[in-house]
């Protein structure tokens, strides 16, 4: 069971005044999150124009490793980042400063090929399952037992429906006999209920400005470190 920090994601610049968008800002923010008790980091590198970029992974991973030595660093491979299958594959193939792991969304058509490319490069895989259909696709893959962990990541805003989807995904994994670590997280209104559910289930979780900017009481958090500290307190409680 760990708490992972997702420090920026695809959030726009005006989402929060402390949203880190440069490699230097991400490195500083990541160090504050580690000091607050987070075990791992999930980062969406950005180019000089502020947009998400797989080509920016090298500079960002290097900067974060300098401030957070020994902490595992992961990135996203979301298809929307490059918005082109061949550019996505080429960017991953060209990484020099490899992340420890990368998340792959099973809802995306090229997910199996991206997973295989990551394996060839020696990068761990977080298999992202957002709906039951993603779980069904995942359990049918020949390399399903070679992933680092499974992300049950629900972006449904209604809590009851989100819980139903999460439990449905877990049931598919259980029936298929999948025995990989699970990390559960929600988005915005479901973040804190899912942190508490992950703690009860003895799963990992993640929090940070990618997933939401409020604390459990609904107040806007000062920064990522404050969000992390609150989640860590729940996991240690």
The tally of beta strands, per DSSP, is 8
CATH architecture annotation: Alpha-Beta Barrel
CATH class: Alpha Beta
What is the count of helical runs? 9
**What is the chain-wise order of helices and strands?**
EHEHEHHEHEHEHEHEH
Topology-level CATH name: TIM Barrel
Cα-to-Cα separation, first versus last residue: 13 Å
Q: Are there runs of 5+ residues with pLDDT below 50, and where?
A: none
Structural class: alpha/beta
Helix content: 40-55%
Strand order of the largest sheet: 1-2-3-4-5-6-7-8
Average residue-wise pLDDT: 98
Protein architecture, described:
- This protein is of the alpha/beta class and 237 residues long.
- The chain has one domain (3-236): TIM Barrel, CATH 3.20.20.
- 41% of the residues lie in helices and 16% in strands.
- It has 9 helices and 8 strands.
- It has helices at residues 23-35, 57-67, 79-82, 85-94, 111-121, 132-139, 159-175, 191-201, 224-236; strands spanning 3-6, 40-43, 72-76, 101-105, 124-129, 149-153, 182-185, 204-207.
- Strands 1-2-3-4-5-6-7-8 form an 8-stranded parallel beta barrel, surrounded by 7 helices.
- Helix 1 links the parallel strand 1 and strand 2.
- The chain is globular, with a radius of gyration of 17 Å.
- It starts with a strand and ends with a helix.
- InterPro entries: Aldolase_TIM, BKACE.
- GO terms for molecular function: 3-keto-5-aminohexanoate cleavage activity.
- This is 3-keto-5-aminohexanoate cleavage protein.
